Amino acid sequence: MTGTLTKIKKKSPHFIVVDFFKGVAVDFIKGDIFVKLSALIMGVGYFRRRQIIKGLIVTLFQLVIIYFTGAFALHYLSRIGTLGTVEFEAVFNPATGRNEFNDFDHSFQILLYGVISIVVLAVSLILYLKNIRIVRALEVKARAGEHIPSFIEDVKSMRDARFHITLLTLPIFGIVMFTIIPLIIMIAVAFTNYDQQHMPPANLFTWVGFDNFRTLFTNDLTSTFGYSFVIVLRWTLIWAFAATFSNFFLGIMLSSFLNNAKTKLKQVWRTMFVVTIAVPQFVTLLLIRNFFATTGIANTIASNIGLTDFLINIGLVPSHLSHIPFLTHPTWAMVMIILINIWIGVPFMMLIATGVLMNIPKELYESAKIDGASPFKQFVYITMPYMLFVTAPFLVTQLIHNINNFNVIFLLTQDTFITLDQQLANSNAREIDLLVTWLYRLTQSDFDYKMASTIGIMVFLVCAALTLVAFNLVIGRNKEDKFQI
Prior knowledge:
This protein is mainly α. It is built from 21 helices and two strands. Helices cover 68% and strands 2% of the residues.
């Protein structure tokens, strides 16, 4: 048991980092003079081992980083603590007849280039320390009389034995540039006062600590974000679970129906449902929004057959309305959004379930029939356990996807739903908003980037918590050797 815990500890990120720095320190201390000089000039160790080209490459890399630090990074890193102090000014010059601008600070540029500088220097530091370990390894090989590969051999190795490293280099660079850096910037903005009143270059913004998080959980006369956050988060979770599990179970039921031996014209039925996938989602949603509009075809038919009056009489439609508020009343809109999502999502789940059902051993069903199990019991004790076992990871990812399902909510309710709740309106939120649609409108309508970034962090925390819980409960316990019918 102790040995197992030791192995786990050694594999944890914390111990990997500690071991790396310990290894660098040991290699530097035990290395010869050329290893130690490599801490000053990175290529010295390679020159000593006659790896001239490699030595020139790492030395050139070192010179580029030194130039980058002095000519670029220090300028922004020295200002990142304040995000700028010199405000924008324009002074009219009578001699030239033009406005002349001062050498002002741009807060967002300072933040952006400061983060880029930190990432570049952090990666450079890792490569710098790694270089010491590589040079030390070359020294050990030389003392042992082992062959030291030439530059050509290293290139061939990157093409053959270490080809996986070559393939991963460009994707990792892309992830750092287009995922990690924007993510760090978004997180950083949540700790600033970047909004419409502090919009560069005309104005500066600065760090405010955790003020935005306090605002998000505060509800008073000046800020209603706390009230809005509770309502939006509640609907986000209701929508995510309802959309995920309704599509999941209905998709399985539909697939079971289509795969039943007694079902006729299976290909026709399957084609009819697949057509909904072939049509682009945004086209379908915009058309459906028009169908259920105040003067849309659904309201016209409902009025002609007397359904609207009936719903008014029983109190399901407010008496002051002459139409069914499919997408304009909070309760009606929530129900309609879930139903429309079923129409869009069930066919996709049907295709996935069809592939899984076709792989369920027929012997299981035959044995169940011999034991006298009804079709319902076969579905409950064979089909559903097997589906949950195979599709559990997909179910978890669909849950997270629906938390961030921007298209359905936005395309169905944009320019259609207007909240009458003044507290929600004060924070630019609506009853049918998801956290992600609320975040979007805060940036596009209010230019409230600080609160949008704060909500973005909360979205991440919600998704991370649900993912961890779901994977532990659904997948962690769903072992193949424990799958029993």
